[in-house]
Design a protein that fits this description.
Elements: H1 14-21, H2 24-27, H3 38-48
Helix pairs in contact: 1-3
Amino acid sequence: MHHIEFIPFSRVSAEAFLPILNKEKVRKHLISQPQFDLNAVNAWMQSKEV
């Protein structure tokens, strides 16, 4: 069985998150939009911070 570790979103780097957000399987669950670039990922991540 795999182990899943939940970390604060603030510890996730945009560079590491970018390829995940642009995967086809992930994108089908997101609102239709162009693929993310690094600037867009940073802005999106900042908008999710509380």
